[in-house]
């Protein structure tokens, strides 16, 4: 079986032509079928109703269309949308869609987790799980188009989970499909690869003839500070990375997350200007997303503005970016990390509640376990909000926004070992303005557990009395 969505357009054309010929189908069918991969994508061959039913069935058997299933979709007050994709093997990655005027930028992931452990980054805290395949990378764009073709991104940035240049083989193919006229057809200058500077793959990216954009995650103007924030400095040191950028032949962007008291002093702006000016680089100043690093704080607004001005005074083009999607944890890796933490908390509470973690001693009540009906009815945890349509933890107090079922909301989330609660399955938090708090979720679950165990105790006592 061929994973047709992992093939670059020329190769998928060849594979399809060969398959059609073997079946004795006319060659013109290829012209009908190929646009259904990327240009006018279908979720399944069954939806390509312009094709005869027998051909659709045969396509489904021989060239199945890989899907990513949407386990969570959140919409921020500012219009930023975040998607968590279930990869079907217990792993999940996220993409973030950022609308701005006519532009819709989709930030996509290239790996599950990341091995590089930058101290401010939620994905870094997760560690590395695995690389994404070509199809898993590009299908993040495809799935968004399948949700609503009007959401088709105008721009794509590799700024989601993972380090793209540590998964070069797949990213290389994905860049081709994204850019190719028979692929997603997004202009090369609208596609940005963000990296900490993995030099061997950077050289390969530089050799590609297309004008893909490069963003270098710098975050510190000296090797010493960079080393403290980004362990990769040990392997690919700042001077070597700057040299590689000078050879890149295209204008690069330097990404600089402003962290209070770490890298936001005006002298550091001076040092940064010394690096940026010879390259003619644009400096993107990013407010730190606090969810990525609980122990670090974003620079105060006044300091960010002063930092930006200082760079400009040195003749460096600098842009202070707005933080987008703060209420939905839209920084790299945060949604997955948060959901995983909540799932672990719930799982542990569940195990405590059913007596796996603590020795409850002899049963306190005779007769059937009063919790059985709940479990038999598929109740997965002890969170009283865990019912369809109910606001999730952290959404209660301020009149939660209605929870809307995400497409694929009935599917299980990342990791069947931790089935998702109804909250996780159905969360599209529209402007609640609050991020679900793990601590609050824990407190609520513990309260529910206390109430539940009190009522079991009462029932057990009355059953003992009556027997
Ligand atoms: N690994 C690549 C691409 C993914 S990270 C890289 O590091 O460039 C994409 C961007 O998000 C990087 O510029 C990274 O520094 C930034 N980022 C990570 N954690 C962040 C946080 N907590 N707040 C703001 N930006 C963050
Ligand atoms: Fe990895 Fe990029 Fe996060 Fe660093 S910032 S840990 S390289 S994803």
Structural key phrases:
467 residues, alpha/beta, DNA polymerase, domain 1, TIM Barrel, 10-stranded mixed beta sheet, two-stranded antiparallel sheet, 15 helices, elongated, binds S-adenosyl-L-homocysteine, binds iron/sulfur cluster
- As laid out across the biggest beta sheet, the strand order is 1-2-3-4-7-8-9-10-11-12
* CATH third-level topology of the domain at 69-327: TIM Barrel
- Please give the count of helices: 15
Morphology call: elongated
Strand/helix succession: HHHEEEEEHEHEHEHEHHEHEHEHHHH
- Give a count of the beta strands, DSSP E runs of length 2 or more: 12
Mean pLDDT: 77
Walkthrough of the structure:
With 467 residues, this protein is an alpha/beta fold. Among the domains are: 4-62, DNA polymerase, domain 1; 69-327, Aldolase class I (TIM Barrel), CATH 3.20.20.70. Helices cover 37% and strands 14% of the residues. The chain is built from 15 helices and 12 strands. The chain has helices at 9-22, 29-33, 53-62, 122-126, 134-147, 168-179, 199-207, 223-229, 238-246, 266-279, 301-313, 334-353, 372-376, 422-426, 438-466, and strands at residues 69-75, 81-86, 92-100, 103-107, 111-113, 128-131, 155-158, 191-195, 213-217, 252-258, 282-287, 318-320. It has a 10-stranded mixed β-sheet. It is elongated. 41% of the residues are buried. The model is unreliable at 348-467 (pLDDT under 50). Bound molecules: S-adenosyl-L-homocysteine and iron/sulfur cluster. Residues 120-121, 158-159, 163, 194-196, 217, 255, 257, 286, 288-289, 292-293, 331-332 line the site of S-adenosyl-L-homocysteine.
